[in-house]
Model the fold of this input.
Amino acid sequence: MKQDIHAYLAEFDDIPGTRVFTAARARQGYWLNQFAMSLMKPENRERWKAGERAYLDQWQLSEAQKQAVLDRDYNRMLELGGNIYFLSKIFSTDGIPFAEACSTMTDMTFPEYRQMMLEGGRSPEGNRSLKGGTDMARITAGVGSSHVPLLGVAVDQGKTGDDYFGPIFKGYEWTKAWEAEQKPDVVVLVYNDHASAFDANIIPTFAIGCGERYKPADEGWGPRPVPDVEGHADLAWHIAQSLILDDFDMTIINEMTVDHGLTVPLSMMFGQPEKWPVKVIPLAVNVVTYPVPSGNRCWVLGEAIRRAVESFPEDLNVQVWGTGGMSHQLQGPRAGLLNREWDNRFMDLLIGDSQEARTIPHIEYLRETGSEGIEMVMWLIMRGALGPKTRCLHRHYHIPCSNTAIGHLVLEPLE
Done:
């Protein structure tokens, strides 16, 4: 049974004298808790004792968090995102036992608190509960697009109008004008990392970026000369925790670089601004190491993202972009494989009320669209997020760009 994340979190706030360590508090208190963890090392404890303020100033804490630490105001630290297990490193460094530290968060002296515990502890009686519209976020459109790195090169080097690239970029002119009119607040941008942020040591099936900012990755030839990508951490954390409650085991990433899989689609839709005109929530999908997620799993993830967005209590215009593909093979004797007919049939299946695309098996992608054509499953996250039926606003297809077929769709949900 699915649970509404907004109602789920509201129940926590009804418990008196309790601060549940939610994803929002984890984000708020990240550096506070990291500071506290640093006191696990003897050399850091010595530096802390030698000068508390100087040591705190080395961490990205707010002034309120720093003052709460200096005051040893643990209730205030909890309010500002602290977690008691992390904060315990502070009072352990002070030589204070857990029970005494707990007493400072109550209206009791330590002897009174200790006696209460000896007498059976605090009763839940009278301590269970303290005992309302808001415009909500909404998904207004979905965009599908290839993310070929050569397109980024064309933008960065001013070649978008030449004979080779001109026909490709002409197919995005409509979308650039449309995005300027739509003015989305946030884009949930589904892409795959190309061995940039994630190496062979970590291969998350689904990873969501919950940070404030992401720098362009150096993919071996230097970072692209594009603006940093600004995240929407509040919505990202909300989506992350909602997806986890919806039975998706998400990997949460607070710091990472983003490669061409994410920055090229932004360039295709927005050109070369000094600052991207939209906040971005990166959602990275493993489409490199098999088994990759099935088309159906991606579609269902999109449906879960829709539920998460629609339960976020802020008036936000949200788009979901699915990127990658289309048909291409970058390896072995079959390199260069393209399949115009299959690509266009795939785009057909995303328009209207068909759900056939969610059942396409991995082996069909591999046989028909090449070893890297599997990236198209990421478009299904976008399609799933749009609900039962869609209408096509714009469509574009071109062969080739480097080794790849270029596909582009703009869809809107129909109720």
Observations:
- Residues 78 and 359 are 47 Å apart (CA to CA).
- The chain has a mean pLDDT of 95.
- The beta strands are 138-145, 186-191, 206-209, 213-214, 229-230, 251-253, 279-285, 317-323, 389-401, 404-414.
